[in-house]
Amino acid sequence: MLKIESFNLLPSFMTNTWLLWNDETHYALLIDPAAPDKKLIEIIKDNNLQVTAIVNTHGHGDHIGGNSYFKDAFGCPIMIHEDDANMLINNKKNLSEFMGTPMTSYPADRLLKDNDIIEMGPDKIRVIHTPGHTPGGICLLVDKLLISGDTLFEMSIGRTDFPGGNHQMIIDSIREKLFVLPDDTVVFPGHGPRTSIGMEKQNNPFLRG
Ligand SMILES: [Zn+2]
Ligand SMILES: [Zn+2]
Question: What digits encode the pLDDT tens for the residues 139-165?
């Protein structure tokens, strides 16, 4: 059975680092590791999980700050959409310089595209390209679980005033690629509490009408 849990590794930005795993196969994905964290490594080891990939929903510093640390620990590939890949290795592009702690990550091992499949053992996770917050923003879908990065939040959407942001594009991404999913799809965003596609379709003030 698939399990998902959030960890707050970067309290100043309240970024959700998501650990997705299958409690039968013990394969896991680490999504948006915000910062190095020894305790999370221990939790993963104590539960006998094997991290098959680090996946970034986009290239902002508060979502990639733990990439190199966790890659060193688990030896797994780093994956990001091709349009955000250069943010990993440029502290201006990933905004970490602007956030006050310039950092970079190891470069991507795999460049993702819309509709790509990430394998987590026998589980297949689908990449949905949702540009708007950044050019290479993605959501990840498996069964009725959607990891939405900074594209869709509970009652809100990602900022589009950073370089590469585009308001109309994020609205189109959400309407055309996320709101077509079943209402009971549970949404696990990059910040804040979980929600569902049905809840947001009805109540999200940025997307009504
Ligand atoms: Zn962001
Ligand atoms: Zn963020």
Answer: 999 999 999 999 999 999 999 999 999
Contact call for residues 134 and 61 (beta carbons, < 8 A): no
> Residue 51: which region, alpha, beta or left (left: phi > 0; alpha: psi -120 to 50)?
beta
Cα of 120 vs centre of ligand 2, distance in Å, is: 24
**Under DSSP, is residue 97 helix (H, G, I), strand (E, B) or coil?**
helix
Give me the sign of the Cα torsion angle 39, 185, 156, 118: positive
DSSP per-residue letters across 6-64: EE-S-TTTTB-EEEEEETTT-EEEEE---S--HHHHHHHHHTT-EEEEEE-SS--HHHH
**Cα 94 to ligand 1 centroid, rounded to whole Å:** 9
Residues with CB under 5 A from ligand 1 (ion): 60, 150
Ligand minimally distant from the alpha carbon of residue 95: 1
Which domains does the chain show, CATH number per domain?
2-203 (3.60.15.10)
Q: How many Å lie between the centroid of ligand 2 and the Cα of residue 133?
A: 9
Q: Tell how far the Cα of 162 is from the centroid of ligand 1, in angstroms.
A: 9
pTM value > 0.85? yes
State what percent of residues in the chain have pLDDT above 70. Answer: 100
Instruction: Give 24 Cα–ligand 2 centroid separation in angstroms.
Output: 31
